[in-house]
């Protein structure tokens, strides 16, 4: 550590690289175009480069161990030997092939479940504990600490997911055995920390974001006992317990834990954390990690306001006990603005990606330590850089019209009208929307965007792909078709490019899961509809077939949650602006004969606040935004929606309140656990529970899918059940897609036959 009076710390650095070089290396290894030795060599090169960048930025406490080949939760599971039996693991370090099989599955072995990391769009691999007793088979933080020390001569700050959070995010343990499982985990964590201390690590960051959840008094007591034991066994290592995404639930107990420091989120949890500090104070012998730079959005911080806040905070926490840091790991923001040459200057000046946020930390540290005229001038200049956007015409307040949020007829009445119109078989089959985007399609789009291909030539290429896949779907005997979305780069970016109020970075990529990276749009101003966005391709697809083709539109809440959103007005207001624009698109489709329309909301659950007391407010306006975009249609127009990879059980009633005619939800990776929710909650609308996992390259057998269908039909009415994959098929190959869909259609036909036979026997 340096001798700065007040220190800066980073909680985590993006893995993917400025130009997604990490992603490309991963995919090259999976495709067997590079060897395992080359893979390790290149990954080490990236890892050291990221550390050197933070050294150059003069960050005082640099995280090590935050780098991952796929996912940090999966890393933690494999560190302790938590490998499910189906992967044929015995003991010792987990091989790279087993590691990736857990993440992606293999030919005959399903992958581990994947779900959202708290309320973000990052997906983690859910640990499966089964009956395994934890053992430290790989001390990853130690390995990272020694690498940084020997290669770059720095004393890094090892980063570890804490045992309480790790266990809470896992599956395969009985709730009544939580305490004993926690004690078992504590022992391997103690071993890990002792090895770090012996290697000379002075400080370690243990991430315990579960502290911001609604913990009971009993759970908080378990947490306190856990860290009493850890610090008693590891007395010579300074531990900072790091929280983020919200305010902690048991402030008094948390700050009095026997550790060196506590990291709090002063962006998402600002008001509650400040109120708690003012009411209860902060221990004078502890460090406070002040998460003051927004780690989840890309707007510049108002450092002048931040400086005033730190000055006020000094009355409760001495300046020498303050550590300035982002509110979360910077995993959730792009790497650098350096290559963003095409953004409007007024917008670019208001932005800060990862590297720029590290600069913000250091400037804030400098002015806090010495508020001289030069530093004051730097603050003023910094403030002026984003004020121009705040005062621009793009953000002038606008009045919105009142939009209908209720359809004229109830679902039961609409259902009969839609059945008469569509005449679909029992258990109709469909897909979620996208089909494989080949390298050729991506290259064609790239050439078109660069101006190397005419609009006519590009459109011809897209139409050829649509025609090909309409024929494939008909040959597969799917009941409801889609056009394949070949013209779309991303389900949110595509719409953002066609709406007012959005702009786009060139390299603003962030990791979603594994090597899957997304480039969130930037909502900088008022959102509004300009012209039809999806009509041309959808209408062309419909002209090729007599079967219904669904119109595919991304919903307002997902566009909001998967964008970097302006921070001068509420998310609710932005969502309503988007809803108005999406409604106009839906009405355009309907007016042109596309009357089965899917308005996707995969991110609805993702935006749910972590504190239960805040749930209802969010759900109220999120549901209203969806209904604004879908209610002003005819009764015979069938509205579909889709959600993926989240714990939906707690929002089943909200899902019903969307009043969509058909909803499709992920179930295959969670082994149909969602079905349990329908055993206690009556769902009386159309529903498709995804019967196979599209995030894995394996082709499931039709028997596997049939078992999921039959399990679902034990709690859901057959006349309302649809059969579909978990999600869109954009990232899959053509051969595996066709094979999987063929098995899916077979499974649906077998299920129909069984139902018919049962009805005859009765």
Under CATH, the topology of the largest domain is which? TIM Barrel
The proportion of residues in beta strands is 5-15%
Q: Whole-number average pLDDT?
A: 93
Structural class: alpha/beta
Give the strand order, joined by hyphens, for the main sheet.
1-10-9-8-7-6-5-2
Q: How many DSSP helices?
A: 25
The CATH C-level name of the largest domain is Alpha Beta
- The residue fraction in helices comes out at 40-55%
Annotation, overall tally of beta strands: 20
CATH architecture of the largest domain: Alpha-Beta Barrel
Largest sheet: 8 strands, parallel
Ends apart, CA distance between termini? 77 Å
**Can you tell me the residue ranges where pLDDT is under 50 for at least 5 consecutive residues?**
none
Account of the protein in words:
α1 packs antiparallel against α2 (36-56), α7 (178-198) runs parallel beside α8 (217-233) and α16 (439-449) runs antiparallel to α17 (455-476). 42% of the residues lie in helices and 11% in strands. The model has no long low-confidence stretch (mean pLDDT 93). The N and C termini lie far apart (77 Å). The strands form 5 sheets. It has an 8-stranded parallel beta sheet. The protein has a 6-stranded parallel beta sheet with strand order 15-16-17-18-19-20. Strands 3-4 form a two-stranded antiparallel ribbon. It contains 25 helices and 20 strands.
């Amino acid at each position: 550590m340096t001798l700065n009076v007040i220190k800066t710390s980073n909680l985590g650095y993006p893995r993917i690289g400025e130009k997604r070089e990490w992603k490309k290396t991963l995919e090259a290894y999976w495709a067997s175009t590079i060897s395992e030795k080359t893979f390790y060599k290149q990954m080490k090169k990236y890892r050291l480069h990221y550390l050197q960048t933070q050294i150059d930025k003069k960050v005082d406490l640099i995280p090590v161990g935050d780098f991952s080949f796929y996912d940090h939760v999966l890393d933690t599971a494999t560190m302790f030997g938590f490998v499910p039996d189906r992967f044929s693991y015995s003991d010792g370090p987990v091989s790279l092939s087993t590691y990736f099989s857990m993440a992606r599955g293999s030919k005959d072995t399903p992958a581990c479940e994947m779900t959202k990391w708290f309320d973000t769009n990052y997906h983690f691999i859910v640990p499966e504990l089964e009956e395994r007793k934890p053992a430290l088979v790989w001390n990853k933080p130690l390995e990272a600490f020694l690498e940084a020390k020997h290669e770059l001569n720095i004393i890094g700050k090892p980063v570890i997911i804490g045992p309480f959070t790790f266990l809470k995010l896992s599956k395969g343990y009985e709730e009544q055995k939580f305490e004993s499982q926690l004690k078992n985990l504590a022992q391997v964590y103690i071993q890990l920390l002792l090895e770090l201390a012996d290697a000379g690590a002075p400080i370690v960051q243990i991430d315990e974001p579960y502290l911001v959840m609604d913990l009971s008094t009993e759970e908080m007591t378990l947490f306190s006992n856990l860290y009493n034991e850890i610090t008693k066994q590891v007395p010579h290592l300074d531990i900072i317990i790091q929280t983020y995404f919200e305010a902690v639930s048991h402030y008094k107990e948390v700050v009095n834990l026997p550790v060196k420091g506590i990291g709090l989120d002063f962006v998402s949890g600002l008001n509650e954390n400040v109120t708690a500090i003012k009411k209860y104070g902060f221990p004078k012998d502890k460090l406070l990690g002040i998460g003051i730079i927004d780690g989840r959005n890309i707007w510049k911080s108002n450092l002048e306001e931040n400086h005033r806040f730190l000055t006020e905070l000094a009355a409760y926490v001495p300046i020498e006990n303050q550590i300035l840091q982002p509110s979360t790991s910077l995993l959730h923001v792009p790497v650098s603005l350096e290559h963003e040459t095409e953004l409007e200057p007024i917008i670019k000046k208001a932005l800060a990606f990862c590297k720029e946020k590290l600069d913000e930390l250091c400037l804030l540290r400098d002015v806090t330590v010495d508020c001289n005229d030069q530093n004051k001038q730097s603050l003023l200049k910094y403030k002026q850089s984003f004020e121009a956007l705040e005062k621009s015409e793009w953000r002038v307040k606008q009045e919105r019209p009142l939009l209908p949020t209720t359809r004229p007829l109830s679902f039961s009445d609409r259902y009969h009208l839609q059945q008469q119109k569509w005449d679909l078989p029992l258990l109709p089959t469909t897909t979620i929307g996208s089909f494989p985007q080949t390298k050729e399609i991506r290259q064609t789009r790239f050439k078109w965007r660069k101006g190397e291909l005419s609009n006519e030539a590009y459109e011809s290429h897209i139409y050829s792909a649509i025609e090909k896949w309409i024929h494939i779907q008909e040959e597969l005997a799917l009941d409801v078709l889609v056009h394949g979305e070949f013209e779309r780069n991303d389900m949110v970016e595509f719409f953002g490019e066609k709406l007012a109020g959005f702009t786009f970075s060139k390299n603003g990529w962030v990791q979603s899961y594994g090597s899957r990276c997304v480039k969130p749009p930037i909502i900088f101003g008022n959102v509004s509809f300009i012209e039809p966005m999806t009509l041309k391709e959808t209408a062309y697809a419909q002209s090729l077939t007599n079967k219904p083709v669904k119109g595919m539109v991304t919903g307002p809440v997902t566009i909001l949650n998967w964008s970097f959103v302006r921070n001068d007005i509420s998310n609710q207001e932005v969502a309503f602006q988007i809803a108005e624009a999406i409604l106009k698109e839906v009405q355009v489709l309907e007016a042109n004969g596309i009357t089965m329309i899917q308005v996707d909301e995969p991110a609805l659950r993702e935006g749910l606040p972590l504190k239960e007391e805040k749930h209802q407010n969010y759900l109220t306006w999120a549901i209203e935004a969806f209904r604004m975009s879908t209610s002003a249609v005819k009764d015979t127009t069938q509205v579909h929606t889709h959600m993926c990879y989240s714990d939906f059980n707690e929002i089943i009633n909200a899902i019903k309140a969307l009043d969509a005619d058909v909803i499709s939800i992920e179930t295959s990776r969670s082994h149909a656990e969602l079905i349990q929710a329908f055993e206690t909650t009556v769902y009386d609308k159309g529903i498709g529970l995804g019967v196979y996992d599209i995030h894995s390259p394996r082709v499931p057998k039709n028997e596997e899918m049939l078992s999921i269908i039959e399990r679902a039909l034990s709690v859901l009415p057959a006349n309302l059940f649809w059969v579909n994959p978990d999600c869109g098929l954009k990232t899959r190959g053509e051969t595996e897609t066709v094979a999987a869909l063929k098995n899916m259609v077979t499974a649906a036909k077998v299920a129909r036959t069984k139902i018919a036979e049962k009805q005859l026997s009765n």
